[in-house]
Amino acid sequence: MPKLDSVDLFYVSMPVVEDISDGSQDALLVRIAAGGKVGWGEAEASPLPSIASWIAPMSHGFCHPIASSVLGETIDSPADIARIGARVKRRSLDILQTDHTLSGIDEALWDLLGQLREEPVWRMLGYRKSWPKTPYASQLFGDTPEETRAKAARVAADGYLATKFGWGAFGLGAVKQDADHLMAARDGLGPEGILLVDAGCVFDDDVERAAKRLPALKAARATWYEEPLDRDALGEYKALSKRTPKVKLAGGEGAYTFLMAKQMMDLAGLSFIQIDAGRIGGITPAKAAADYAKARGVTFVNHTFTSHLQLSASLQPYAGLREHELCEYPVELKPVAKAITKTMLARDKNGQVAAPDAPGLGIDIDVDALRPYLIDVSIKVAGRSLYETPMLRR
Amino acid sequence: MPKLDSVDLFYVSMPVVEDISDGSQDALLVRIAAGGKVGWGEAEASPLPSIASWIAPMSHGFCHPIASSVLGETIDSPADIARIGARVKRRSLDILQTDHTLSGIDEALWDLLGQLREEPVWRMLGYRKSWPKTPYASQLFGDTPEETRAKAARVAADGYLATKFGWGAFGLGAVKQDADHLMAARDGLGPEGILLVDAGCVFDDDVERAAKRLPALKAARATWYEEPLDRDALGEYKALSKRTPKVKLAGGEGAYTFLMAKQMMDLAGLSFIQIDAGRIGGITPAKAAADYAKARGVTFVNHTFTSHLQLSASLQPYAGLREHELCEYPVELKPVAKAITKTMLARDKNGQVAAPDAPGLGIDIDVDALRPYLIDVSIKVAGRSLYETPMLRR
Prior knowledge:
By secondary structure, chain A is an alpha/beta fold. In chain A, the strands form three sheets. Chain A has an eight-stranded parallel beta sheet. In chain A, strands 1-2-3 form a three-stranded antiparallel beta sheet. In chain A, a hairpin with a 2-residue loop joins β12 and β13.
């Protein structure tokens, strides 16, 4: 049974990170080697606290460094990945950062197992086929309705059947202003395009303010209304969902455990559950969320705002669910996020994308392209070096 | 209006940390100075990831280093503390570790404001009096029922009116074995003592296994059944609460935002909400949780397993709620946790403890006693030193 030979964490970043909501400006990559093969994963978000949780000295019996639950373990089947994940979660229960860090480890373990078995991850998850998904292009609202219209028209011309507008000034000004942007987006997109709206948690726990935008969302025929409220406001989401039979709610990117995602489906009235494998603890809990969504009649969608390594990891959990066909597709990656992968998951002739039919995550990592973006990190505690950026190997 | 002159984070630890569930073996202390005064706070848990979140280079617009939202701010009233906290939360929304780190900062800001105004924190929170609370002594179940009986008898003899047993083998073996321990605890405690039981999340999301212990809990007249299930399993807690009209559920230590605590009260059927000011984001969200608990008829209790600095911080949010009278009281602190404070919140002649009637948190920090436990940390990123353990000053 192959023993994990090495587990390495790499922090890569643009030389200058801008103060904009673009999650592709840095990344934490995880490389795990065993049995002569290598697997890669990526963890959201903020690389340094995750590296710290990997090597943090023990605080007590439920605050072990994550590394101590992973190094020296063996991998032979999906059950081993579940076992390692459960061990990490139990032994690092009280470190808040744990699940973000675990995400990259779990992804790398699945990729590694796929390389060892020469099987795609989605097949090991029990799916027979990786169904093509309809990607939506995410963009910020324009500064004016006219600009929003032009942006919508541009992605429609580029062949996207679906687009998402979000953040910007949405929810911060008058209801009329938001309505103007929504109608402009519908206008630019054409009558057939799928329009999605992301409010970026702007209304906190204020159901009334969130509800004031419902008539405009309905008029613009928005398919979903994403994260109008704070991620923890489950009961408030439920109250809002009762006000909006015609406008469906979406959320879930903040879920960092399967059970959180489950509560969102059970208690918050969501119609779409958006899971980021790089945050929820990896592919293992994301697959549990996809199974539960299917059983409950909630539609599963990936959340991805970084590299195509993360895109593949986030597609795997629902690759075989044909009816769950939308897919968040990062379109304007920063150079560092592009540099991570030789493989890009391009749209096919129908404009769709799918999890690759290739071993593991099916993504070749471009170590040479990545090297210039590698950030040197050194962490010393009580005179001992606990982390030094490792050599970046294939 | 006083500007924050300095914000320093200190990692202190026992030289050897044991693999036991004792949270007093290390601490992250926060010292903030302004207007010639100093305030102190403490953040749970795992100091290194929290230090990393304080100085982590920006990943994107919602992943700023926490320091960038605090340094240079001004403090003149409670509204400034709320403003700084909201700024941290918004600008570091996507760093999972944020709320744990913020806890220590918020506590230090309240202590500082109290020093500047010469007022106890509980008075600034709107309370007229700090009511004495009945402390309960927390301990692990014994290895045998006989040992559990002896432990219960010992704390009763030591004058405690309430005791909590938890963890150990509870829930891992036969129902009969748990029942024997519970009856032994009741026996040792005597008929009048308040018996609390902490299952340490041992049943995950399995309502049936958790429910099998209800008859024994009822027979032993346990006042609460704490954390039988995973912290995220809100719907499962609700289902369990319906099975147990005679045994009330307690939980909440895992809540790291006010809205999480609110959902636990709204959706999980808890009768007791246990809030750790060092985890939920500080005294500000803990007070919001106390207000909500009072309005909803849920009983608020502090969760504290570290120093008396943290004990004072966790007492403040419900100091004025006379009917919410239980209090978790750390009895067997490790030397490092004792060294933090000159002031210890001792039990009065009635065996009760109260938040001090003194400026701020009313706790003197013992800088000289603490110095031997200070851990040297050095974090360098891309050739720049981002954190070096600062000098420990009064």
